[in-house]
Amino acid sequence: MAMKKLIIFLLAVTFVCGGNVIFEDCGSAYEIETVDIEGCERTVPCHISIGAKTNVTVTYTAGFVSHALSQLAVVTLNSVQRETVVSPRACEATWCPVQTHNINLYRARMEMPTNLALNSRGTLNWSITNEFAKRLVCFTVTIQTRSPLNEYLKNLIFD
After folding, report:
1. Residue 157 to residue 141: CA distance in whole angstroms
2. DSSP state letters, 80-145
3. Fold of 30-158
4. CB–CB of 111/84 below 8 Å?
5. Ramachandran region of residue 39, left (φ > 0), alpha (ψ -120 to 50) or beta?
6. How far apart are CA 140 and CA 144, in angstroms?
7. Nearest to residue 28, comparing CAs of 107, 142, 139?
8. Model pTM?
9. Of 85, 89, 88, 81, which Cα lies nearest the Cα of 51?
């Protein structure tokens, strides 16, 4: 019985459902509460159009103060990695210094690269680090790329 409880606990720690997106925490020092990616639903994979500008919102609780932040978002498809353009800078996307023991809000806009394979499944890995290169927020989302035309037709049919 103790082993069963341990397995359930480990699964809960490593595979988190929060917000609109199912994500996996990849070693965050802060506690991620939710991850929302505009246009993604609570299904796997999260469909994102290449070239799309997509809003990303993360809520998290900080256990310690950080004064300077940097961010990196990388898409991996077929073992090929591409950085996404993320704006604004991390300290403009959340309050700096990061407030401890409160729920903090991080809002950014990600631009998917246009040089990605269509209809391919892969991952989006997002990390935010502090001035000491400590990984504060890190999550991975399973994604599938699609063309902007697919996005347009989906919206035309279902809206």
Report:
1. 26
2. EEEEPEEES-HHHHS-SSPPBTSEEEEEEEEE--SSS-TT-EEEEEEEEEETT--EEEEEEEEEEE
3. Immunoglobulin-like (2.60.40)
4. yes
5. left
6. 13
7. 139
8. 0.81
9. 85
Measured CA to CA, the distance from residue 145 to residue 123 in angstroms comes to 10
Q: Which residue has the tokens 């502090």?
A: 130
Residue found by looking up tokens 């997509």 in the block: 54
Which residues is 11 bridged to in the sheet?
A: none
Q: What is the pLDDT of residues 7-59, one digit of tens each?
A: 333 333 334 444 589 999 999 999 999 999 998 888 899 999 999 999 999 99
The position carrying tokens 């347009």 is: 152
Q: What is the DSSP letter of 56?
A: E
Amino acid residing at 134: K
